[in-house]
Amino acid sequence: MYVERQIYIRSHGHVQFISLSPLTQTFFATIALAFVGWIAFASVNVVFKEQIIASKDRRYVKMQGAYEERMAQLQSAYDALNGQLVITEERFMATTMQLEDKHRQLAALMSQRQTASSRLETMRRHFAATTGGKTEGERGNKVLMRVERHSEGPDFADTTTGPRQMAGTDRFIIDTAENTGGPIDLAGLTELTGMAGLAGNEADGNGTVAQIDTRLAQIDRAQLTLINNIEEVTDRRVRELKSIIGMTKVIDPETLIERRGKAKGAAQGGPFISLADHEALAGGAGDSGFGKQLYRVSQNLRTLADLEETIAQMPLAEPLVSYRKTSSYGSRRDPFNGRMAFHSGEDLAAPYGERVYAPGAGTVSFAGWRGGYGRIVEIDHGNGFRTRYGHLGRMDVKTGQKVAFREIIGRVGSSGRSSGPHLHYEVWFDGIVRNPSKFIEAGHYVFAKQG
């Protein structure tokens, strides 16, 4: 296309020419094409400038909208995760606070149980100290009323035949296969505080959360098992103590407790709350099952405390450590004239000078010489109970003196209408003489043979 060309120029009769080589033609054609293209581009920009700017703005707005939408999605996801963390932490804190509250209630319950049995335990220790480990027959110094830690089921006392013997000690410890963390006892429940601290570390992973949740569930089950165990033991103890009082054949246990309360002049009062509205007394509606059970056990413990205090006032211990029964309560042939007569007590033969112990605390209402009794000591134990000790060789107390449980009140002798050294022992209730053997037999179920 670009062959060599010549351009002729004629001026003033002269002819000149310019020679254009192919390279020169190509160069000028390129310049012309570039100029034309620039003119076209500039014209289009001038004509369509507004449309181009608007298109770019739309594209920018669209990109910005997509970016903001993505950021909103991320923020929403973050807020949801943070909300779950807060809810989880609050749930763990609420659970641990609830378990800690149950723990405090159980601790108070155990303290109440310990207080209820403190006096009777003291009497048992005193009895053991006075016997010195010597036993005869079923007499000894080990507490009969015990509950084994592992039992096959409830073993309530038969109220018609007296309490049953149970070995072991009271240990409210829960040890089940579910507790992967090991045995849980009442003191061990204080680890809930540590659980509350772990509740905020949700970022450690689902494994940690699952472990905490599982452990809290285990502790909750352990608390329920514990309160069930306490209730079972308490119910069993109440039946045992009532059966012990019933063995004396003198008065109904509830009537005796009521008499004791009236004698103490216990002040009572408070607002009236009907049984239909007793949720306030049973832990509220939020956890009424546990609260009601806790209230029921607390009432049983109060009854148990009253029973133990009542038994502590009863003359159930034997007045002698070692003796031989020579005459029982009731009808017998008189050893001096051979005629049938009523014997108002039991004769317990023992060597001269054998110590005579008070079977219960009280006040000496009489100490002196009284006819056929010889030297006699009479103790008023309160609540209608009195005991007499006849034919003493020596009296170690005097009228009006207060005596403690297992305090020495005299020595065995043969004063008065007696055929040999022995103790004539009588038990009175409400002014009527009773069979001492019933009280001694009941006492065997409080102080059992040491094995």
Write a structural description.
The structure is a single chain. This protein is an alpha+beta fold and 451 residues long. The chain has 3 domains: 5-79, no CATH class; 99-265 and 273-313, no CATH class; 324-444, Glucose Permease (Domain IIA). Helices cover 45% and strands 19% of the residues. It is built from 7 helices and 16 strands. It has helices at residues 22-116, 118-131, 192-198, 206-247, 253-264, 288-313, 436-444; strands at 5-11, 14-20, 173-174, 184-185, 324-327, 330-333, 340-343, 346-349, 355-357, 362-370, 374-382, 385-395, 402-403, 408-412, 422-429, 432-434. Strands 5, 8, 9, 10, 11, 12, 13, 14, 15 and 16 form a 10-stranded antiparallel β-sheet that branches. A hairpin with a 6-residue loop joins strand 6 and strand 7 (340-343). Helix 1 (22-116) packs antiparallel against helix 3 and helix 1 (22-116) runs parallel beside helix 6. It is rod-shaped, with a radius of gyration of 50 Å. The protein starts with a strand and ends in a 7-residue tail after the last helix.
Query: Number of DSSP helices?
Result: 7
Helix content: 40-55%
C-alpha Rg (nearest Å): 50 Å
- How many domains? The number is 3
Total beta strand runs: 16
Q: Which residues sit in consecutive blocks of at least 5 with pLDDT less than 50? A: 135-203, 269-286
Shape, principal axes of CA atoms: rod-shaped
Main beta-sheet annotation: 10 strands, antiparallel
What order do the SSEs take from the amino end to the carboxyl end, as H and E? Answer: EEHHEEHHHHEEEEEEEEEEEEH
End-to-end distance, in Å?
Answer: 134 Å
**Beta-strand residue percentage:** 15-25%
